[in-house]
Specification:
Two copies of one chain form a homodimer.
Chain A: H1 9-16, H2 20-27, H3 37-50, H4 56-63, E1 68-73, H5 80-94, E2 98-103, H6 107-118, E3 124-127, H7 131-144, E4 149-152, E5 162-165, H8 169-181, E6 187-191, H9 193-200, H10 208-219, E7 229-231, H11 236-248, E8 255-258, H12 261-273, E9 283-287, E10 301-304, H13 312-323, E11 332-334, E12 338-340
Parallel strand pairs in A: 1-2, 1-3, 3-4, 4-5, 5-11, 6-7, 6-8, 8-9, 9-10
Antiparallel strand pairs in A: 10-12
The structure holds a DNA duplex (16 and 16 nucleotides).
Chain lengths: 345, 345
DNA sequence: CTGTTAGCGCGTTCAA
DNA sequence: TTGAACGCGCTAACAG
């Protein structure tokens, strides 16, 4: 049962008593070459018999394409990734492309991912996470290498790649406006580790979401209270913990804007464990689409994409870029978020 | 800025006025070749200047290895994946290996994944999801192709690959025993779509977890009530919905064993929304490790791995297999689950 | 119209 | 330090 040597197309050709060219034509099911039924069957039988599978490395080398696209994510726990992966899979299949995923959650992993991509491990890439670690420099590096890329970002200048943009400032303004008009005056921000750390360090916060929140609040004459900017949006557990602490503090908030839907769900439940009910005692708004939003009680108010999350347009944009050799103008898909008022506000 | 042609090692060699062999030695930082400092610097400068990155396809073809491992998952939303990916990344880095992920959530996607793997897209694979779609046949196919594989499964006969096994019947027996001795007599099973469908169709249920539950229940003289076997473990939203319906039924359960920790969390909250509190009105047990278990109130009782989830041993096993050409005996790592009694039971 | 030959693509590595 | 063979599938060009 030991695999002495991997069978090659030459082995198959010998076994089927044809040339390697014929094997190649048969294996690729080429319609521009007419192969007689009997020859075809003999080749396929020989391939099956030997357990032959073409070596992708050789094919990649010769064809100058990998027939793969790469999805870069920051971590596995984000609900929207299933949607994104599904869309990429679906569109990829139609082009005969496979999908691989890489996780970027640190500067070193970002370096390695960029290196791998520059080595042409894929024909195109969708960057849906880890962008902070990759940075504008990393994107430039990919662009210079001629790697077709779609970046999910609200803040990146589109120089050398396509952008999928979900502007959220208007939705955020509406949500905060709604909270304000409901007489909420102590509105907390449950943010991601990174943005909150930047804020408290007095640095420039490079987060579109946080900026939109701060702007909206100030627009109503409110002011950002440092005690009400806390980390906890990165996971459900952290969200629960952070909100529990926040509500036990001397001057608890009367509303919470959470930078992820997951942590918004945790917020509702952490509040209830302290005897506080949304929306009466605490208004809660999440950011992003999540199936639970419509299922839990109260239903979760969010800012998020209108309608169902579907990334077919993103996938199409990527494959257009991969297919069209002439770079053309860099494109941008804009899908502004809206405020979905539901039960928690 | 248009990339006329990707620079090759020959381009670098020409620019640095050395041979391609020297370029190769420098790029790989080989210590067994003495390359003078000046030559080295000239080569690196030329590579940088031209934006050269070696073509992985060519390297793969020549080296007969991809320096990549592949993680096969069923979907993105499973908490333990972050742990698994982290361990694989860490161990992979030490070997200079990259990690790619493929999603298998349907028979066609399983076929494509197997095909890709047979084409040697990776040097080894960890199958952590989608196993039902891959099936024993698919695994055999990979084994025959000589692909080193570690399969996370409790039920697969280890014929041609290594197995990472987390037997849970004892933990389940203990959990059910505890429920039983607390006078719970209507114990529901919140299962995965697939196992519940099989059960209600009167088919053989090929789920270790369900079997362990049924056996444990019968061991106490209890019997499986068809009304109390419901689907909803696949996601939080489905769990919430299923439990809400279950608790509104004429004869609701007094305990729920959930086949995922995520749905167990939803269970607690769905119950509370109906005015029922765990553990008093409803005992809840989840399956698997999840950070929230220790954070929410009540803390969640689970069956799961002892201690922290860490898959270093799994990763090591895979790399041993990849490195050691002599197949050796197929290995199995066993990490029996235990019953973690916490606040919800 | 069918099948074959020959050489390409590019990094690696042995022999010199 | 280098020249040249090598790995393997693909395909243009050619022969039967």
């Amino acid at each position: 049962m030991t695999q002495a040597r991997r069978p090659t197309s030459r082995d198959v050709a010998a076994a089927a008593e044809v040339s390697v060219a014929t094997v190649s034509y048969v294996m690729n099911g080429r319609t521009d070459r007419r192969i007689p039924e009997v020859t075809r069957d003999r080749v396929l039988a020989a391939a099956e018999e030997l357990g032959y599978a073409p070596d992708r490395a050789a094919r990649m080398l010769r064809r100058r394409s990998t027939e793969q696209i790469c999805l870069v994510i920051g971590s596995f726990g984000v609900p929207v990734l299933d949607q994104l992966a599904a869309s990429l899979h679906e569109t990829g299949d139609r082009h005969g492309f496979g999908l691989i995923t890489m996780v970027v959650n640190s500067p070193p992993s970002a370096r390695r991912a960029i290196e791998r991509l520059r080595e042409r491990i894929a024909d195109g890439v969708v960057i849906a996470g880890g962008l902070h670690h990759i940075g504008a420099d990393g994107l430039q590096e990919l662009a210079r290498a001629g790697m077709p890329a779609v970046v999910l970002s609200n803040a990146m200048p589109a120089d050398g790649f396509d952008v999928y943009c979900e502007p959220e400032s208007e939705a955020m303004a509406e949500a905060v406006g709604h909270l304000w008009s409901s007489d909420r005056r102590r509105i907390a921000y449950l943010g991601h580790e990174r943005e909150v750390a930047q804020y408290h360090a007095g640095l420039q916060v490079d987060s579109d979401r946080f900026a939109a929140f701060a702007t909206a609040l100030e627009g109503h004459g409110g002011r950002l209270d440092a005690d009400l900017v806390v980390a906890g949006a990165d996971s459900r557990a952290e969200g629960y913990r952070a909100v529990s602490a926040l509500l036990s503090a001397p001057r608890p908030p009367d509303a919470i804007v959470a930078a992820s839907s997951r942590s918004a769900v945790s917020t509702i439940w952490a509040a209830r464990d302290q005897g506080l009910n949304a929306p009466h005692d605490l208004a809660v708004v999440g950011a992003g689409a999540i199936p639970e939003a419509l299922v839990i009680r109260p239903t979760l108010s969010t800012i998020g994409p209108p309608g169902d999350s579907d990334f077919t347009d993103l996938a199409t944009m990527l494959f257009d870029r991969i297919t069209a050799r002439d770079a053309g103008r860099w494109r941008e898909i804009r899908r502004p978020w809206i405020y979905h008022r539901r039960g928690s506000t």
